[in-house]
Amino acid sequence: MGNFRRWDDLSSSGGTVFRFALVLLLSGAVFAQSRPSIRTLTETELRDMMVGASILCSRGGDTQGMIDRVTKALHDGATFQMVSVADLPDDWFGFTQFGIGGGGAWPYVNERMQKQGFRRDPNAATAEQVLSEYLGKKFDATFEAETGGATANTLLTGARLHIPVIDGCPSGRCLPEVQMSTFNLNHGITRAPFAGVTRYGDIFIVPSVHDDFRTEDITRALAVGSGGSVTIAANALPGKTLKQNLISGFLSKCIKLGRATREAVASGKDPVEAVIDAGDGYLLFKGKVTRSDTKGERGFGWTDAYLQGTGEFAGSEYHIYNKNENMVAWRDGKLDAAAPDIINALDPKTGWAMRGGGVIGGFVVGQELTVVGFPNNDLLRTPQVIEGMGPKHFGFPDAYVRIEQLHKRTRRTN
Question: Rounded to an integer, what distance in angstroms lies between the CA atom of residue 49 and that of residue 208?
Fold first, then answer.
């Protein structure tokens, strides 16, 4: 046995040192196991993510503006990191920060503040800072509440706080109403406690709400009375809960779609077809916008857009109902796609989400567009979610039908 010593002989000072070293070794192993794998995003990945996020956003967006904001921060020294949902430690504390707003703000508020000489304080507290101080907790990670412009904002928030963004999303698209989330509709988890700040420097904290319909009521009213927007920090939750409510790998999917368009354009291929293939999607329509009825009201942008078909779709009409986002679409009067699935109009030359017009979610008359659709994740297709964001929620008689069933004979690019 040589110089091997039994465990019960380790009572001497040497044994004490041994036990102390063993404790340190085991503690280090546990610590190493609790550290998630975090990767740093490259500029190419960030660019592709912005393009893909806009495609899945379900409305027009300023894709180039998103790219410019993120890459400027990168060139100024920011680091963008991402952690997978699977690797997220159960005891990590995450949160989301998002904007509320749309059309129909009170213009006299802006006019009055201008007359009073109001100037924004560049050092004003952010919603995240207010919520963190109120809870007495430091956040370990952040995640997007929806995709599109919120993706860029989430990346910038994570870089500012030096924490990773979570590679997940609770909506799989953009959604017009605050209560539309996996947290609330599937599990009854409200946004509260949440904190908010307005463009005028107002700060508020809501410790609790009856449900997230009330969260929608409260935050939308604040946005309407505050120049059209308010920023909210909410869903401050442990990793264990986040794992149950986030679509895993969503930001990676955005990168995949953005890469598909970039590579298709570079090789002279059809970028929309590449996006459809990469996202397991469907070609819904090709046409020109002939009419776009828009209005801003009660903090939302409302649009009914009509397209006349071109090419193989000639002779058909397409109607898209938009409440901030594209929620329901009909071809020649028959349901063609509906939320919670994703509907978006892309530029046929680039594969990017089209630029909107007028109010948020608006269309530009005369635009040549290709309308595509993608199935949403099953987390967003439960009976509760369909009741809360399907066609009937918006007052239409149509029952929700999965996009795969509606287009089972026209898989992907026809």
Answer: 34
